[in-house]
UniProtKB/TrEMBL annotation:
A single cellular component GO annotation: protein-DNA complex
CDD domains: AAA, REC
Taxonomic lineage from the root: Bacteria, Pseudomonadati, Thermodesulfobacteriota, Desulfuromonadia, Geobacterales
Name the UniProt record assigns to this protein: Sigma-54-dependent transcriptional response regulator
Organism of derivation: Geobacter sulfurreducens (strain ATCC 51573 / DSM 12127 / PCA)
InterPro entries attached to this UniProt entry: AAA+_ATPase, AAA_lid_NorR, CheY-like_superfamily, Homeodomain-like_sf, HTH_Fis, P-loop_NTPase, Sig_transdc_resp-reg_receiver, Sigma_54_int
ATP-binding keyword on record: yes
rRNA-binding found in the keyword field: no
Residue ranges of domain Sigma-54 factor interaction in the record: 153-381
Domain Response regulatory: 8-123
UniProt cross-references to Gene3D superfamilies, sorted A to Z: 1.10.8.60, 3.40.50.2300, Homeodomain-like, P-loop containing nucleotide triphosphate hydrolases
SMART domains: AAA (SM00382), REC (SM00448)
GO MF terms held by the record: ATP binding; cis-regulatory region sequence-specific DNA binding; DNA-binding transcription activator activity
Length: 469
């Protein structure tokens, strides 16, 4: 019997030849730890020791049959998938086994491809159910085991904390992770956190794949052989070789060209690639993290993104919420970027004006955290001393009223005016409505409401007074 690790597969069969043949097939296909048991009575004690990831079980064996063992495995070790492998090709037996909780049912002689596919799926499923269990534990006690991995992400949001918890769990697997979210939400910071969490020793290598044609993509990622094309006078490794034992971060994956999508799919499925000009496949063990601000499902509908690639990528997917959906982050982020901007300019951190938070809370931040960062850096650069001026923020936010967060639910009716006013309104009614809405969103601050409306504070004040009178 060989030693066991977390990915040990146990084969149980009374026929030695079958055990030997199946073990060779699995070892030859990259399954590192395959334990064989000819005496089925040894199985349960072995499972008790832990570390077994899947069991392949014969049904008819002396002493303790597979039919007797299967329910015991399912009851005592529900996280270990059991594949039944037997000479009996009877639908009834297959149904009984599946009902008893078998993961799969294979009829001997089993074709090697079928055995490999079944064991691969069983391991994937086992890993997923372990992840799910850790996730449940994590969510129940709201803990983070490695908060240091997220140190660069400033946040106070529960939604973001849930993303952290999910990433802590899935980062342990070697499956790719897809990070989605609008531009500027911090997707690259999350990719770096995954790299930290996976505890790998290699480098974090980031590549923006938008705008790379297939030749550039292949050369950048896979490298080339000497003489592969004019000018290739030296063989050169690609970034995937640099990311060996580390993480390869593919940014803007939704913009990847079609030919390169096939190559990426191959890399994910077979874990191998060809340097340009070479017909010798190379193995890669780099962890892949992808990010996009596009809706990949829409890209699939438009036939701009491959379905099979999407399903490979989305096994572990996290969606980073836009800043306008986590306004509770604003105070921390404002403070953080004021400090960052002041430090970069070698100045003292300015005091923010009290209205800044209210003003920023009504803005929808299409560029998310990156936009906030740029706004604050700009304001600090223009700033003299004392309290920071609101002007540079007003110019951006007041200048584009469409960017304000829509808070009034306009019905999907074709006539939004009727949805709000019940009929076509007069100019006065619209003005009154806009003023009331601006005051509401500005939480009563006339200066901010005036900026939102594009009028002076005095004009707004006059109109409000006139309304009262
Ligand atoms: N929560 C955060 N805390 C601190 N800095 C942040 C946070 N979120 C984003 N940033 C900063 O905002 C900028 C944009 O972040 P990042 O490049 O990770 O965004 P992205 O989602 O990858 O954008 P894109 O889709 O355009 O590539 C970076 O300077 C990043 O450091």
């Amino acid at each position: 019997m060989t030693t066991e690790t977390a990915q040990t597969i146990v084969l149980v069969d009374d026929e030695e030849n079958i055990l030997k043949a199946s073990r060779l097939i699995l070892l030859g296909n990259g399954f590192g730890n395959v334990v064989t048991l000819q005496d089925s009575r040894q199985l349960m004690p072995l499972l008790e020791q832990g570390g077994v990831a899947a069991v392949v079980l014969d049904l008819f064996m002396p002493h303790l049959s597979g039919t007797e063992l299967l329910p015991l495995i399912v009851e005592r070790f529900p996280h270990i998938p059991a594949i039944v492998m037997t000479a009996v090709d009877e639908t009834e037996t297959a149904v009984t086994c599946m009902k008893s909780g078998a993961f799969d049912y294979l009829v001997k002689p089993v074709e090697s491809g079928r055995l490999i596919a079944s064991v691969t799926k069983a391991l994937e499923m086992g890993a997923m159910s372990r992840e799910l269990n850790s996730l449940k534990e994590c969510l129940l006690d709201d803990r983070l085991d490695h908060p240091e991995a997220f140190a660069s992400i400033v946040t106070d949001s529960k939604k973001m904390r849930a993303v952290f918890q999910y990433l802590e769990v899935v980062s342990r697997s070697r499956q790719p992770i897809l990070v989605t979210g609008e531009t500027g939400v911090g997707k690259e910071l999350f990719a770096r956190a995954v790299h930290e969490l996976s505890g790998v020793r290699g480098e974090f290598v980031a590549v923006n794949v938008a705008g790379l044609d297939d030749v550039m993509f292949s050369d950048t990622l896979f490298g080339h052989k000497k003489g592969a094309f004019t000018g290739a006078d030296q063989a050169r490794d690609g970034l995937i070789a640099r990311a060996a034992g580390g993480t390869l971060f593919l940014d803007e994956i939704g913009d990847l060209n079609e030919a390169s999508q096939i190559k990426l799919l191959r890399l994910l499925q077979e874990k191998e690639y060809y340097p340009v000009g070479s017909d010798m496949a190379r193995k890669s063990e780099a962890r892949i993290v992808c990010a996009t601000n596009r809706d990949l499902k829409k890209q699939i509908e438009k036939e701009a993104f491959r379905n099979d690639l999407y399903y490979r990528l989305c096994a572990h997917q996290v969606q980073i919420p836009p800043l306008r959906e986590r306004l509770e982050d604003l105070p921390l982020l404002i403070d953080y970027f004021l400090g960052e901007a002041a430090a970069s300019l070698g100045r003292k951190k300015p005091t923010p004006p009290p209205e800044l938070l209210t003003l920023l809370s009504v803005y929808s931040f299409p560029g998310n955290v990156r936009e906030l960062q740029a706004l604050i850096h700009d304001a600090v650069a223009r700033h003299g001393s004392g309290v920071l001026s609101l002007d540079s923020f007003r110019n951006i936010i007041g200048g584009d009223a469409v960017q304000l967060i829509p808070q009034t639910a306009v019905t999907s009716s074709d006539d939004p005016l009727s949805a709000i006013f019940g009929r076509f309104p007069t100019v006065r009614e619209v003005e009154d409505y806009l003023m009331a809405e601006a005051m509401k969103r500005a939480r009563g601050n006339q200066g901010i409401a005036a900026t939102m409306l594009g009028i002076t504070r005095q004009t707004l004040n006059k109109r409000l007074q006139a309304k009262k009178g």
